[in-house]
């Protein structure tokens, strides 16, 4: 049995992805900052028939993140799929002329250092399996910077570059790296943006390994 680790395991997309992969036989490791929220989400997934456990870690804390991923692999099984999808903090998103260098520390810790730390922890296990998927879930500012969301625009661009480099380096080893861009956010009355529809798309990115790095939920200019 293998495991999907979802970093940013919230009640919307995180739960939907956990249920989707759980139906396919995956165990689920949810990693988030709040023990109370994790316990609630694990209980909900258990009621859905998904074998899930929660692990407390802040994505900006590399040591805590490494421990959580190591514990998940030991308790649930090798991590075959890593999903990086924490919700950015509101303070990360300021207009460009109001953004200082200090304002970029948090976004970069979350969206650049965080994925790097997570990948370095799970990659040896994926190599031992001979397969794996690394999924980066981002908003539209990852590819189209927004003047009022400077922190995420800068940090998501770095995350996107890192993902592309990983994709190119790891594809020959059977390890797939994919970035899903969700412009205009999750939900909002758009069927393609509802958590269950997005979870299906994320499952396809894992299952198909079609060789592309970046996928859009819908065209950016739609």
Layout of SSEs?
Elements: E1 3-7, H1 13-23, E2 27-32, H2 35-47, E3 52-56, H3 62-76, E4 79-84, H4 105-129, E5 132-139, H5 150-170, E6 175-182, H6 195-208, E7 214-216
Parallel strand pairs: 1-2, 1-4, 2-3, 4-5, 5-6, 6-7
Helix pairs in contact: 1-6, 3-4, 4-5
Q: What do you see in this structure?
A:
- The chain has 222 residues and is an alpha/beta fold.
- The protein has 6 helices and 7 strands.
- Helix 1 links the parallel strand 1 (3-7) and strand 2.
- Helix 3 runs parallel beside helix 4 and helix 4 runs parallel beside helix 5.
Keywords:
222 residues; alpha/beta; seven-stranded parallel beta sheet; 45% helix
Rg from alpha-carbon coordinates: 16 Å
Major sheet attributes:
7 strands, parallel
How are the strands ordered across the major sheet? 3-2-1-4-5-6-7
Arithmetic mean pLDDT: 91
Overall SS class: alpha/beta
Number of alpha- plus pi-helical segments:
6
State the assembly state of the protein chains.
single chain
Helix content: 40-55%
Q: What is the overall silhouette?
A: globular
How many DSSP E strands? 7
Spans of at least 5 consecutive residues with low confidence: none
Strand content: 15-25%
- How many angstroms does the end-to-end distance come to? 40 Å
Helix-strand topology string: EHEHEHEHEHEHE
């Amino acid at each position: 049995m293998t495991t999907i680790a979802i970093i940013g395991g919230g009640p919307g997309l995180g739960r939907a992805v956990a249920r989707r992969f759980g139906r396919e036989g995956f165990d689920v490791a949810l990693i988030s900052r709040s023990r109370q929220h994790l316990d609630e989400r694990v209980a909900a997934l258990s009621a859905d028939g998904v074998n899930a456990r929660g692990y407390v870690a802040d994505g900006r804390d590399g040591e805590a993140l490494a421990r959580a991923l190591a514990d998940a692999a030991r308790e649930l099984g090798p991590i075959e799929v890593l999903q990086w999808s924490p919700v950015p903090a509101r303070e990360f998103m300021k207009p460009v002329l109001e953004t200082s260098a200090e304002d970029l520390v948090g976004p970069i810790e979350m969206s650049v250092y965080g994925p790097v730390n997570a990948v370095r922890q799970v990659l040896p296990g994926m190599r031992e399996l001979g397969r794996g998927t690394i999924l980066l879930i981002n908003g539209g500012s990852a590819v189209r910077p927004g003047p009022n969301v400077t922190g995420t625009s800068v940090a998501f661009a770095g995350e996107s570059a890192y993902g592309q480099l990983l994709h190119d380096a790891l594809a020959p080893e059977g390890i797939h790296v994919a970035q899903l861009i969700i412009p205009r956010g999750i939900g909002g009355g758009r069927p393609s943006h509802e958590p269950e529809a997005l979870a299906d798309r994320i499952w396809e990115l894992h299952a198909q390994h079609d060789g592309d790095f970046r996928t859009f939920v819908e065209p950016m200019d739609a």
